[in-house]
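ok so dumb question maybe but i'm new to this and my supervisor (M.) told me to 'just get the structure for Luciferase-like domain-containing protein' and walked off. so i did the thing. is this what she meant?? sequence i used:
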Amino acid sequence: MTTLQSALWLPIFDDLADPVAVARLAAEAEEAGWHGMFVWDHVRWREPVRQVADPWITLAAIATATENLRFGPMVTPLARRRPTKVARETATLDRLSGGRLTLGVGLGSNRFAEELSATGEELDDRRRGRMLDESLQILTAAWSGEPVHHHSEHYTVDGISFLPTPIQRPGVPVWAAGFPGNLRPPRRAARHDGFFPVNLEHPDQLADIATTLTALRQHSTTPFDIAVPLPANADPAPYAKAGATWWLVEFVPDTVTLDQVRGVLRDGPVEG
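this is what came out, is it supposed to look like this??
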């Protein structure tokens, strides 16, 4: 069985849209023995949610309120962000935290709040997938500290050096998200540092994914994480046996409250 680390995965809506409150939760989580705290990245959400926080400002608050907690956006849809700005944000956050940032990435979705169509973003999944992969190429190059020369379908970076670099070398760990049964996300994840499978229904699905990832990474010797979102009352042990390295406690976004998160937090992380 894989040693499992535990994190809180917070929709930063309504009660949790206050970065001061989330920073306090992060400090409490660290004191209670949790290993990480990750936040959603959205510009809006369906009703009844009304308040939505900015993830990057919230992550900066988490970074300054903690000393050891791993944290990051889970996940940021890179296709609706400028990769050069994300390069600056990630390097600065990693330095602010002493090297504790993990970057979760994915395609994003228009399904839950129509936030892509309402802001004029790209709606085609395949096109957003290409934008995501191009952005990751730019980020990898930017984190090296060398001048970035990138000319592609969607982005141009002409000889810019992104200094200072992140503390973590060769760069910030990247976890790519995806649905079970879709082959592109595991392939993307295998080129980076972790996979975040969403909508898992049972551990056998994860075992199949882990087998696929092992085959894709057979020539790699670098560490690799599989982070599984599960409710607080779920048993993560079968998922750890299937290959999970992180358990992210999920909350219902429409009804999450500070008291609910604090109750889970005080119960403490999973043992081992």
